[in-house]
Amino acid sequence: MAMSLGPRGDRPLAEINVTPMADVMIVLLIIFMVATPFFDRPDVALPRAAQGTEGGERPVVLTLRADGKVLVGKDQASAGPALRLALAERLRGRPSEERSVVVVADERLAYAAIGDALRACREAGADEVELAVRSDR
User: Fold this and answer.
1) Which residues in the chain belong to E strands, given as ranges?
2) Full-model pTM
């Protein structure tokens, strides 16, 4: 805190120095800008693949976690008919070329669980189903 004597000299005038506070706020802003991309990663270990492509449009994302949780986008869904209904709701109203679903499945899952999810995608009306993988590059 800075203290200066005004023109009267008999009483102190206290002023708050805001420069250190602004410096701290700028550093916090930079830290959050750098750390934010890491917050949205699902805790799914993707299988590796030698080749892969980057998705273009914004597809519906179906996440199958190793602990058995199923997410459609960021909303939790259950397997079976409830999953099919949740996917159909997300795909409804999209043009036919944008009816794609990306399945993000943990590599530790049994093939049967992934097969059931793929079947639910087709029954919900997805025209294209893609499997997400980690690139070896």
Assistant:
1) 2-5, 12-15, 48-49, 60-64, 70-72, 75-77, 100-105, 128-131, 134-135
2) 0.57
